[in-house]
Structures are given as C-alpha cells and as structure tokens.
Amino acid sequence: MIGPRLIYQLAKNCYGCHVVPREDLVNKGGHRAGSAFELVSWSQGEVLHNTWYSKGKANVPADAARKRMLYLVGLGVELETALRAVGKATARKAYAFEMAKRVDRARKQLAVAAKAVPNVPEIAKMVEYSHSAALKLNNEQLLSTAADGVSKELVSISEKYDGSTMSGLDSFIPGPDKYKGAARPAAAVN
C-alpha cells in the first residue's frame, strides 16, 4: 500500500478475496458471491496501512487525492473482476446472476464518475468496454476481452493520474462514518 502508483495492484489483491472467484463455491457450497466491497471504506478503516509515510509514527488516513484514486480504481477493479467472473460462469444460477449485478452496478457508478471528471477519458472508455460484451453464459472470450480493456485503462489511470484533478468524485467517496472498523494506531518506533 506504500507505492502511490500501485493502487491497481492493491485493488486487485483486495478484490481477489472479496469477490469469490469460483462458481462452485457459490452454486454448490452456498457461499456468498462476495462482500459489498468498496475500496475506500475498507482501506481507510481497520486495515489502514499508512504508517510508511511517517516511519511508523502515525497511521493517518489517505489524503483527498489518494482517496479519489482508491475510489476510482476500486470501481474499475470491481468491474473487471465481475466481467471475468460472468465469463467463467457455466450455469444460470446465483453466481452468474450476482456477478452480472456487480457488473451492472459498477458500470453505472463509473458512468456517473465519467461525467463528474470528464478530464479523465479513461473512465468513459472503461464503461464502453463493459458494454462491448453481453452478460451471458458461454461468452467468456468476449467478456475476457472487455475485462482486459478495463484493465488496460486502469493501468493507464494509475500511471497518468494522482487524483489531484478529480475533485468531481469527492461527493461519491464514502466518509469516515462508512469506514469498516477503526484504524489501528501506529506501533511504537524504536
């Protein structure tokens, strides 16, 4: 979590667990398809890892620019992950339906974000990719291609922007009352 340009990798790591990658765990095992995960809410709460910047002296929340990046990249990874999951689904059961709902929700949120920060054209491109393949069974190749396009745009966003020009996102970013748990204090530095 210390690399400012590694937000995409951070988000991919988080979504790797918070969105179930296996259909059989949901359809046969009864596991939920994933948690209602949003990157800012989770990364600024109990799992806040911002001690690097102060050499262990403080565990402060991310600044506004970083929260914008966490929010935007988190939505993009939600979309990418759910597109890949729909592509892997083999049965018209809970897993396919839940993942399709995640795609729909993420692309709607990203469409709103694209209007809020038109100076980041990569957002609209992600939405375009998300609509390029039908959310249906036996469509893995096209859905994977769409997810790859979203991934490409997320990498571009992570490399080109730092969030400072994205204040249009501020009203969408969850506040401290939505954070999951309380941040742990920094450990004593010797």
List keywords for this structure.
7 helices; 190 residues; 53% helix; mainly alpha
Brief account:
With about 190 residues, this protein is mostly helical. The chain has helices spanning about 5-20, 25, 40-45, 65-90, 95-115, 120-130, 140-160. Helices cover about 55% and strands about 0% of the residues.
How much helical structure, as a percent, in the residues? 40-55%
List how many beta strands DSSP finds.
Answer: 0
Task: Tell me the Rg in angstroms.
Answer: 17 Å
Distance between the termini: 22 Å
Low-confidence stretches: none
Please give the domain count. Answer: 1
Mean pLDDT: 86
Question: What fraction strand?
Answer: under 5%
How would you sum up the major sheet?
Answer: none
What report would you give on this structure?
With 190 residues, the chain is an all-alpha fold. The chain has one domain. The protein is built from 7 helices and no strands. The longest helix has 25 residues. The protein is globular.
SSE diagram, text form:
Layout: H1 7-18, H2 23-27, H3 39-43, H4 64-88, H5 94-116, H6 121-130, H7 140-160
